[in-house]
User: Which sequence fits this backbone?
DNA sequence: GTAATTTCTCAACCTAACTTGAGGTCAAGG
DNA sequence: CCTTGACCTCAAGTTAGGTTGAGAAATTAC
């Protein structure tokens, strides 16, 4: 292995635990930008190990690849990212994560209310219409659950 | 509309907010079992409104269709499910939901630790290897983030 | 110098949960 | 009766996040 000519895709795969195919896929999605050696093979910076680790973690947090890409784009392109750069990103993580937890908790509270009434019945049931998307779309569920008004 | 001959797929779609194609898909997945009228069209019971509402809600909780099917299979096939029947199911919801919340909170705690050290760096970082799947798979990430031991 | 690995590209396949389209039938209103 | 509009089936397309395979070229190991 040549000294300091960058990491091969296989080396990167072994050290991140990712499949080679996954790494190539991530490149296609713009998450990493390896260069090519004389023979046309991909060569990676050591900093890419960190980028890929980040990808793995961010996925555990439920981020999509485009979202992860956005986060990674905030990193300095030129210099190697410092711990401070990464820490800035984890703040973004944090708020996103808090959001998701809050959503689930809200759902849980609604569920608790519904266990009491045993309903899951619309249109009263808060579970059915927790104010997400398309509130006033006009078509939504109206007289559900068989207790129609006619 | 004939009296009490069951609901058409379109009526069901309007009242649940689901697409007709989605309802047919759910049937294919075994979530509902309409019968057919003389002309071969699907006819649904009123109780199916509740079943479909349940499907919608369960999906918000992150259940997959096969999982939802399992839950629905616990409902009495013959008689119309009572509130009690539904309440029994929401207990299953509850524990599942608690699990997911706990997982996220664990992740968040790890993240908080990592904001401090700014690392996201392996193999120390708890975020990277939160003890899920394939713990001793042998191949995992080892000396990551550029601080290799050689 | 040759054999064994790696790597390359590109196209096709995979799962989940649906949607869309083609071509044909059923049902309801005037 | 006849025209819409709702329905039917079946095949194929869609998105996300990859994997698999073929055939060829590069690299490494002995």
Assistant:
């Amino acid at each position: 292995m040549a000294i300091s000519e960058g990491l091969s895709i296989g080396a990167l795969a072994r050290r991140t635990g990712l499949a080679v195919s996954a790494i190539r896929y991530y490149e296609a999605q713009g998450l990493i930008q390896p260069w090519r050696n004389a023979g046309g093979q991909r060569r990676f910076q050591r900093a890419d190990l960190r980028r890929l680790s980040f990808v793995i973690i961010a996925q555990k947090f439920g981020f999509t690849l485009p979202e992860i890409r956005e986060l990674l784009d905030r990193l300095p392109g030129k210099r190697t990212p410092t711990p401070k750069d990464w820490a800035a990103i984890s703040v973004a993580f944090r708020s996103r994560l808090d959001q998701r937890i809050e959503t689930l908790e809200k759902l849980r509270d609604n569920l608790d209310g519904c266990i009491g009434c045993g309903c899951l019945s619309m249109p009263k049931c808060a579970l059915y219409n927790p104010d997400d998307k398309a509130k006033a779309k006009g078509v939504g569920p109206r007289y559900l659950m068989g207790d129609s008004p006619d």
Notes: Chain A is about 50% helix and 5% strand.
